[in-house]
Amino acid sequence: MECTPNLIFHHGKIYTSDTLCTIAEAVAVKDDKIIAVGSNDSVMTMADSKTETIDLAGRLMIPGLNDSHAHPFMEANQVTAVSFSEARNISDLLDALKTRAKTTKPGEWLLGSMSWHETQLSEGRLPTREELDRACPDNPVSIPRGAHVKVASSRALQIAGIGADTEIPGGVIDRDSSGQPTGILMDAAADRLTAAEPKADASKFGEAMIAVAKKLNSYGVTTSAESGAIGASEETSEYNLKTVMTLCKEKKLPLRLSASFFSTSYEMAKYGVTAFSETQNTDFFKFQGIKVMSDGGVESANLIDPYEVISGVQPYPDYHGIEVWPPSRQDELRRIMELCAGAHLQLQIHIHGDKSAASIIPLLSEQGNKTDIGKLNWTICHLPLSTDEQLETIKRLGICVTVQHQPYLLGENYLRYWGNSRANAMARYRKMVDMGIRMGGGTDMPIDPLNPFCSIEWMVDRKTITGKVLGKEHSITLDEAVRLWTRGSADCEGWGSMIGSIEVGKKADFAVLSQDIFQVPVGEIHNTVAVQTWVDGKCVYRRG
């Protein structure tokens, strides 16, 4: 019989994420698609002697989670980096470097992982150049913290050509009272250091990506965005993308991937469009378009009012952050917009500060009056600060907003750098959801933990890693958060007709969870993992 399923899940609590928020008991799968969703009795009658049946024993099944804003390429390229995830003070961090130095030849670089934050350290600060020099006198050291900040030793600074008289447009070089670099670099200054570092072994990139995908599977993630394929050059970014495209084509990567090409100029964007605009998208890989920045992160977002002055950290009373597209460059950004619109591609633009929002959203509106950018799924990434008028424009144009849990890990820095008022006014998810703005959930990993349940928990309780609550009135319900991470993300990626909910005709992408997140206390949601993860009707992960 043609409609006989080869697989049935039964006696579960199946959160479908459909438009009616239906909770079902069973789901039937034929090959890679869902053919029935309903009660145990109605679905089980479809089985024959060849149908495999899986008793969920009351466990919660949800649609496969979809990280709409992440950087798995970055995660793959740092698999051999020194980890600081267990460090709880500066001494722990330095000890991790010393341990790696014992097996590293003199003169070779020591590179840290970006998946940590000074908030986890008792001192609440970044290490200094001098501390790195004392810990590793024979090796240049570079430690990224997130995507916008790096700390370098003296040898690393010297190799990168960064000294007392160095000025780098679009970047910040932190200096001590004598004008010497402290080792802390932001944005374009951090990029200068990156350019001096040894490049990752490209031949191992595919293997590393498979490892990252499997790690995501362990949390029930079945689809991920690559929100700006970043390499040491345009050619490296192209190589990484093509490597992943091949893995997806051969179905060696156990998740679906949508990717954008990171660009800092019109010429770079044109390179990416030329290289990939004719890409044959598949059910496992989609080339979305171009990703650009408009400013930095919490320490360098472009703000209307100046940053808070922080003794020994941010001493400038008139510091407003980084402006990537000042008025003198906005015609270039318009050309990038026209390029994406003409190629029928998505544009993703990182907006973190309110001055960037005030500058960039009118340009999006200008383009939106000529092109249906909502149909192309144009996306604003992050948008922590916004006005009602800006949100109305976003809603009118059909622009997507991808949101993450940066304040979970970075909350203390938002308070220190932005002040209490701005820190509590950010991430207006309640308003966005109520307005019906298209939204997708994400992690921004490896800048933040890749655990999707940390993101979901933060959207509900707004608690930082230190236990502080920021802007509780902007929280959303757990149901809404899960929908952002499933149906919402799929919509932002243009995959809404294929994935994002457990409905007849959609792909069989599921996650069976270790606990019922709708029943446990909100503060325990982050402890959730996947028991089973299914992609395209195949089990890609099984715990234990």
Structural key phrases:
544 residues; Urease, subunit C, domain 1; eight-stranded parallel β-sheet; six-stranded mixed β-sheet; 17 helices; 23 strands
Describe this structure in words.
A hairpin with a 5-residue loop joins strand 12 (171-175) and strand 13 (181-187). The protein starts with 6 loop residues before the first strand and ends with a strand. Among the domains are: 7-64 and 506-542, Urease, subunit C, domain 1 (Roll); 79-113 and 126-196, Diaminopimelate Epimerase, Chain A, domain 1. It contains 17 helices and 23 strands. It has an eight-stranded parallel beta sheet. Strands 3-2-7-21-22-23 form a six-stranded mixed beta sheet, with no helix packed on it. Strands 9-10-11-13-12 form a five-stranded mixed beta sheet. Helices cover 32% and strands 20% of the residues. It has helices spanning 40-44, 72-77, 90-101, 129-135, 154-160, 188-196, 205-217, 234-249, 266-276, 330-342, 354-368, 388-397, 406-418, 420-425, 429-435, 452-461, 478-492, and strands at 7-10, 13-15, 23-24, 26-30, 33-38, 52-55, 60-63, 65-67, 110-111, 141-145, 149-152, 171-175, 181-187, 221-229, 256-262, 285-293, 346-351, 379-382, 400-403, 439-441, 510-513, 530-535, 538-542. By secondary structure, the chain is α/β, with parallel strands linked by helices.
Q: Provide the β-strand percentage band.
A: 15-25%
Residue-averaged pLDDT, rounded? Answer: 94
In which range does the helix fraction lie? 25-40%
Number of E strands: 23
CATH T-level fold name of the domain at 79-113 and 126-196 = Diaminopimelate Epimerase, Chain A, domain 1
Instruction: Please mark out the parts with pLDDT under 50 across 5 or more consecutive residues, or reply none.
Output: none
**Looking across the biggest beta sheet, what order are the strands in?**
8-14-15-16-17-18-19-20
Global geometry = globular
Radius of gyration: 23 Å
CATH architecture classification name of the domain at 79-113 and 126-196? Roll
Biggest beta sheet attributes = 8 strands, parallel
The secondary-structure class comes to alpha/beta
Question: Distance between the terminal alpha carbons, to the nearest Å?
Answer: 35 Å
